[in-house]
């Protein structure tokens, strides 16, 4: 019999998250895949997941069928995952983060050459954009978008090979980020949680900022140095002339603020800030509220990340603390890579990629918000579970 202490939370979680899967066998294999991600140490290949959760010789084929070919809709699963996560506390921020998934060859859906600012390298990879809820200092992924370069959506053969739905088209990074925000707004309870994102390498960040402002969604966004801003207080015949954010930040005031990171650590930082507006307001529109441009002042004089926020009514230390949430997003993605199999899937088809990202997100969110292992005897598995080794009954590496 399952250990009551552990069986109930895991069973309740899988029952809620996978309730919209139409067939009972899909729901069972979803639970089995999820359990495999949680208890299999090391590489999370489908074969190793199957060996961890089932004695059936056909388990490998069934799991592979479920994640790659079975026609189940991942959106209701992510919807339920979001609702389950919200049940553990209010989200203080919505963070937008990236997952860079290196690939060999050109068969994986959306694979392309991408310069990764985090590593300073150009990679052959898939690029995912995720929405994370920050709950109690933890960041958990509840939605994803696969960025498809134009060739993947314009070539009929590539579309057919990767099973890309007819309605899916190429959309730039800023548009995908807005789509994630719209999805969370439709899915979650009303909340003032600001959007935190690092868009410092996106030349079209201004379009994201405009979109967030039009949605009345507060934000703390890292922006490129060349972003054009309008100084406040300067008067010329035609109004202030736009200048780059990097050039204008030197006109701001410097204050020492105490920043609280997502993990609760406190540190004092010198931060420079100045109020600005964005160019491009519609003719005849009322004057928009100003934004705050700010950056950390590094002791060696190196350029630091520039941030723009709509939260001008908040204290600078509070806003600067929100900016540190980007490190929490990066850490969450790294943990999913190391311990939850984020990189251990070919991802050749569009549905397969979303299925895998959904299951990895569910496993990570469950473990982070409950800190519980799966039951000693897995009631979710379609075939008898034969693993009894203690080291496979607890999450590997957590």
UniProtKB/TrEMBL annotation:
<feature type="domain" description="Transposase IS701-like DDE">
    <location>
        <begin position="17"/>
        <end position="241"/>
    </location>
</feature>
<protein>
    <recommendedName>
        <fullName>Transposase IS701-like DDE domain-containing protein</fullName>
    </recommendedName>
</protein>
<dbReference type="InterPro" id="IPR039365">
    <property type="entry name" value="IS701-like"/>
</dbReference>
<dbReference type="InterPro" id="IPR038721">
    <property type="entry name" value="IS701-like_DDE_dom"/>
</dbReference>
<dbReference type="Pfam" id="PF13546">
    <property type="entry name" value="DDE_5"/>
</dbReference>
